[in-house]
């Protein structure tokens, strides 16, 4: 992909920030197609289990859809609310079945909140000022989903060794087949393992993750399903039934067992809304990160970004909601199959896990 064109796309997207909502951005179908084709080759050239080095900034379920106060118009024709699906679907037709966009799409957990994605970069530093790892779930029904995925893919192409995107549970064939090429997990300095969901009873060796063939759809059960769908549960020991109807829940004992077996210090995951943007579990051996403030425009939750320095000290940068307080409390179901998960433990802003 032409370097000048890539820089121009990044500039247009970043410069869209104007007040509380980004102004309109125009990308051509050809430009979106080039982003997809080029990023696909980069994803396939990198392993399923990324082995990364600190310092790095980790963004969890990052940009969640919420209603826009102002519409965003595109050069691409759009006939319904599934703007991302419509435009990107046409752009991907040339790729064949593995790349056709299907019914709907979702982007740690960023879910299409483009303005909040730009706020994360403003606080944490725009690439390549900082290294980034996103934990999945990037787009939803929001009208800003195209901006979100295009900027993430553009940064992936521009800084492929400094900018990483893991696969979330919404990145599957029933949602969008391009995500079959995303990485599944990341290992930071051989001490912090990152995934979207959680642990699996089938995970005995990290080479099992490395050996997953791509492209691959998410099965209804098994290792890959659990990496994207499993949840921690403070009320159980061992493995339990997941209220989502897929995968498992796991207790603190399984976290300790896994970390000791693989000589790791911390599990970092996303997949659940947490009130303060981050929540510890199992005596700070696991942390859930959620980077989208004001989830769905209904909850007054904060977003967070975890910063891992070169000594493996972890700190959290908090992204407060800029909107009015949400209408619902954290005792309610946030979305079907995704209850809020609040670990009742005190928090510290800095955690030394070395």
TrEMBL record:
Cofactor(s) required, per the database record: Mn(2+)
Biased composition annotated in UniProt, kind: Basic and acidic residues: 342-354
EC class: hydrolase
The reaction(s) this protein catalyses: O-phospho-L-seryl-[protein] + H2O = L-seryl-[protein] + phosphate; O-phospho-L-threonyl-[protein] + H2O = L-threonyl-[protein] + phosphate
Pfam families for this protein: Metallophos, STPPase_N
Record region (Disordered): 330-354
SUPFAM superfamilies given in the database record: Metallo-dependent phosphatases (SSF56300)
Molecular function per GO: metal ion binding; protein serine/threonine phosphatase activity
Family: Belongs to the PPP phosphatase family. PP-1 subfamily.
Protein name, per record: Serine/threonine-protein phosphatase
Organism in which the protein naturally occurs: Vitis vinifera (Grape)
């Amino acid at each position: 992909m032409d370097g000048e064109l890539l820089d121009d796309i990044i500039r247009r997207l970043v410069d869209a920030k104007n007040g509380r909502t980004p102004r309109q951005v125009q990308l051509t179908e050809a430009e979106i197609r080039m982003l997809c084709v080029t990023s696909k080759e980069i994803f396939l050239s990198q392993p399923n289990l990324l082995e990364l080095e600190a310092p790095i900034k980790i963004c969890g379920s990052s940009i969640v859809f919420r209603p826009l106060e102002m519409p965003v118009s595109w050069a691409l024709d759009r006939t319904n609310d599934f703007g991302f699906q419509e435009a990107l679907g046409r752009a991907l037709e040339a790729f064949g079945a593995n790349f056709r966009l299907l019914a709907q799409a979702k982007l740690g957990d960023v879910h299409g909140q483009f303005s909040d994605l730009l706020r994360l970069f403003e606080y944490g530093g725009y690439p390549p000022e900082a290294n980034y790892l996103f934990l999945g779930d990037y787009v939803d029904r929001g009208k800003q989903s195209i901006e979100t995925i295009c900027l993430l893919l553009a940064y992936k192409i521009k800084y492929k060794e400094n900018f990483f995107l893991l696969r979330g549970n919404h990145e599957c064939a029933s949602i969008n087949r391009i995500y079959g090429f995303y990485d599944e997990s990341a290992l930071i300095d051989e001490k912090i393992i990152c995934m979207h969901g959680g642990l699996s009873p089938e995970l005995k060796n990290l080479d099992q993750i490395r050996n997953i063939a791509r492209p691959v759809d998410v099965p209804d059960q098994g290792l890959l399903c659990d990496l994207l769908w499993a949840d921690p549960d403070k009320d159980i020991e061992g493995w339990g039934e997941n209220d989502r109807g897929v995968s498992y829940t796991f207790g603190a004992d399984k976290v300790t067992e896994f970390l000791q077996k693989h000589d790791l210090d911390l599990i970092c995951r996303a997949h659940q809304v947490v009130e303060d943007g981050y929540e510890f579990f199992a005596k700070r051996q696991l942390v859930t990160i959620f980077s989208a403030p004001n989830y769905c425009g209904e909850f007054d939750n904060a977003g967070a970004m975890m910063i891992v320095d070169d000594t493996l000290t972890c700190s959290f940068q908090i992204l407060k909601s800029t909107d009015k307080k949400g209408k619902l409390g954290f005792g309610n179901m946030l979305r079907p199959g995704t209850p809020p998960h609040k670990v009742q433990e005190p928090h510290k802003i800095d955690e030394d896990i070395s």
